[in-house]
Design brief:
Elements (H helix, E strand, L loop, with lengths): L3 H15 L3 E6 L4 E4 L3 H5 L3 H4 L4 H6 L3 E2 L2 H8 L3 E7 L4 E11 L2 E11 L1 H21 L17 H13 L6 E4 L6 H10 L8 E5 L8 H6 E2 L12 E2 L1 H4 L4 E5 L6 H13 L1 E3 L6 E3 L3 E6 L3 H6 L5 H7 L2 E4 L10 H16 L4 E2 L1 H9 L5 H15 L4 E2 L2 H20 L7 H19 L3 H8 L3 H10 L11
Parallel strand pairs: 7-14, 7-15, 8-11, 11-14, 16-17
Antiparallel strand pairs: 1-2, 1-6, 3-4, 4-5, 5-6, 9-10, 12-13
The structure holds adenosine-5'-triphosphate (ATP).
Protein name: HTH-type transcriptional regulatory protein TyrR
Organism: Salinisphaera hydrothermalis (strain C41B8)
Keywords: Aromatic hydrocarbons catabolism, ATP-binding, DNA-binding, Nucleotide-binding, Transcription, Transcription regulation
């Protein structure tokens, strides 16, 4: 029979190994002496790194915020807080001082992961709000949690700018790398505008062949040209009447198309091809591009007068790399969306969190979203580990390194190397996909980008409705 002291230690170990709640015992300096095994998942650190760590350091490094142990040490009484963790979880923490006479010798904290309950609450609140919004006046503010989750100061300023500009009729140009969320923000601007009951018409300028621009923008009547739809067709400008016209990839418009667009923006009236009837096209314009529009103007590729007309409020959306603190928020929200879509309740293993947080995301939110979905669908069990996909990606990197070491390739300029790789990727995707949308999904890119690149390399997809 073990001694009473040993028995107590065994009992405590059993509690720590099996407790569903997270138990942490720290000394009077805030150093963690013992922790339940469940802490690794919620705080995203292996248990052996967690034990021995200083709670002051963990708080400073954002692993948990605020530290309940630090509070108890400062206030010398029991405390209760909601904690945010680096893994994006919301934890309800309570901690208690342990006294030896009048000396505070330990702090014991007990926490419960409330993330799922909170996201259910948020989902309920969101649904409730949507229900009310449908019956009442249009929404007037962005919901940072539901619409643009961010804890980045610059992004917060952008959200506040978007809120101020949304109800006005000012033209907005959304600038930023591919996949940062420009299209989504255009939709939010419409939702918050005075025109939210009107249509939101979206067009990808990069996918409209120059020869079809006029018929797409102004529409046409029956028999206007060979191949025209039998009953004619309203153009984008006409369809957007009373609402918002969102022109994505606006920098891809040819000089001719730019002139035609300028005309409709000045006149706010259109005449369908083959007709003489003049129709009003009263819409609010939102444009987007991942190119440097000012540079395009300086190089003479984009008309200065059109630039001034559309560029009333330019908004640059920062790349994900410039708001890395938002990545856990997005991972959490995307995981929640995947769980809802697939009717499951999967969670990320701590190593997966570390991997995702340590990786760079040149394709921004779109790449993160696609990558997470791949991991999600490939995970056999309820816990998503880095597993086969990440492993494969790492292997591929390692393989490339071995190739490079074994047989040095002839030197190319960086641009040539990138173009060769791009072309190969596009060709591989072309052989498997039936549309540029499918290709964009597979390649973690956007449809306009895929479309533009196919054109650049002289590659074609036959059955694409958008081509
Ligand atoms: N606030 C957000 N929350 C969750 N997902 C988002 C958010 N914003 C964007 N995404 C996702 O990221 C992806 C890219 O967003 P979006 O298409 O708006 O980017 P974009 O900047 O318009 O890209 P491109 O320039 O290539 O057209 C989309 O699949 C979208 O669902």
């Amino acid at each position: 029979m073990p001694s009473p002291d040993n028995l107590q230690a065994l009992e405590l170990d059993a509690v720590l190994a099996h407790s569903h709640d997270h138990v942490v015992i720290a000394d009077q300096h805030g150093r963690i002496l013992k922790a339940s095994e469940s802490c690794a998942g919620v705080y995203g650190l292996p248990l052996q790194e967690f034990i021995g760590a200083s709670t002051y350091d963990l708080e400073h490094n954002g692993v948990l915020s605020p530290s309940i142990t630090v509070r108890v040490l400062e206030q010398r009484r029991a405390c209760h807080v909601m904690q945010a963790t680096l893994t994006g979880r919301s934890v309800m923490a309570s901690a208690y001082p342990v006294w030896d006479g009048d000396r505070l010798v330990r702090v014991v904290s007990l926490s419960k992961d409330m993330t799922d309950i909170r996201s259910l609450q948020r989902e309920y609140e969101l649904l409730h709000r949507q229900l009310i919004a449908r019956e009442a006046a249009p929404a007037t503010a962005l919901d940072p949690d539901a619409d643009i989750p961010t804890c980045n100061p610059r992004m917060r300023e952008i959200v506040s700018l978007l809120e101020r500009v949304a109800p006005t009729d000012a033209s907005v140009v959304l600038l930023g790398e591919t996949g940062v969320g420009k299209t989504r923000i255009a939709g939010l601007l419409h939702r918050l505008s005075q025109r939210s009951n009107g249509p939101f018409v979206e067009a990808n300028c990069g996918a409209i062949p120059d020869t079809l621009f006029e018929s797409e923008m102004f529409g046409y009547v029956a028999g206007a040209f060979s191949g025209a739809a039998r009953n004619g067709k309203p153009g984008l400008a006409e369809r957007a009447h009373g609402g918002t016209l969102f022109l994505d990839e606006i920098a891809e418009l040819s000089a001719q198309a730019q002139t035609k667009l300028l005309r409709v923006l000045q006149d706010r009236r259109v005449t369908r091809l083959g007709s003489t009837d003049v129709r009003t096209a009263d819409f609010r314009l939102i444009a987007a591009t991942n190119r440097d529009l000012e540079a395009q103007v300086a190089e003479g590729r984009f008309r200065l007068d059109l630039y001034h007309r559309i560029n009333v409020v330019p908004v640059t959306i920062p790349a994900l790399a410039e708001r890395a603190e938002d990545i856990p928020l997005f991972i959490q929200r995307m995981l929640h969306q995947l769980n809802t879509r697939y009717g499951q309740d999967k969670t990320l293993a701590p190593e997966t969190w570390s991997y995702l947080l340590g990786r760079s995301w040149p394709g921004n939110l779109r790449e993160l979203e696609n990558y997470l979905e791949r991991l999600y669908v490939l995970a056999a069990g309820p816990t998503i580990s880095p597993g086969p996909t990440t492993g494969a990606a790492l292997d591929a990197e390692a393989g490339q390194k071995t190739d490079r070491e074994a047989a040095p390739r002839p030197l190319h300029t960086l641009r040539e190397a990138v173009e060769t790789a791009e072309r190969e990727c596009l060709q591989a995707a072309l052989s498997r996909c039936r549309s540029t949308y499918e290709m964009a999904h597979m390649l973690g890119s956007s449809q306009p980008t895929v479309f533009r690149k196919l054109r650049k390399y002289g590659l074609a997809i036959d059955t694409d409705p958008a081509a």
